Amino acid sequence: MLFIIAHQTFELWFKLMLNELETSIHLMISGDISEATRLLRRVVEVEKLLISQIDVLETIRPTDFLRFRNVLTPASGFQSLQFRELEFISGLKDERYLKLHVEESSDAAQLSKRLEAPSLWDAFRKVLRESGFDIEASNENLQFEKEVDAVAKLYEMGTKTSVIELAEALLEYDKQFWLWRDHHISMVERIIGRKVGTGQGGVSNTLGRFASGSAGASYLESTLRKRFFPVLWEARTKIE
Q1: Which architecture characterizes domain 2-76+119-238 according to CATH?
Q2: pLDDT digits (tens, 9 = 90+) for 103-123
Q3: By C-alpha distance, which of 28, 59, 33, 8 is closest to 191?
């Protein structure tokens, strides 16, 4: 009962997060920076709530989980459409995940829509351009460097406070998502140790997303390297 309710609750919060993030993108594109920031801050509070929810899941003992693990077959965390949408809308777009939803045409269509739609970073790049920064380049590496320089300059100038606050909200959203992944890894290892994942609905049903035969907690650890906004993190090093 606890496992099912917790994951159903995750999905409900995912729905709200997607709504607020999508609205934030439209607001950034239209120039309403303060309202976009306000909604991003709301999403950050939801993330904190999701992290605290993992504490409840951690009350499941290994023996408790093993009693019903086989009942979850063939469910898999990879099947959470809304979680994948969250990654896509945040900029981590990988079209290979579309294959996991081919059996549900409506899900596949929704994920394809997210793949093609502007991400949070796309919207923030528009904000940077409209703030007077030249961030266009002929290749990805050079563009990354120009974006990093632009964000560093933004902070150094200190004049465009609303854009700085928006950048801070995006970074906090990214950070809380990373903490969420980290807490989830600890929960998985606490309950199933270093067991190989089944890809059929293990504890990683919500955040881990490991496929059949994957290395369970080891796979989850690899996801910690993911960052939605690497430019914002890298810019910290260049600010003088």
Answers
A1: Up-down Bundle (1.20)
A2: 777 888 999 999 999 999 999
A3: 59
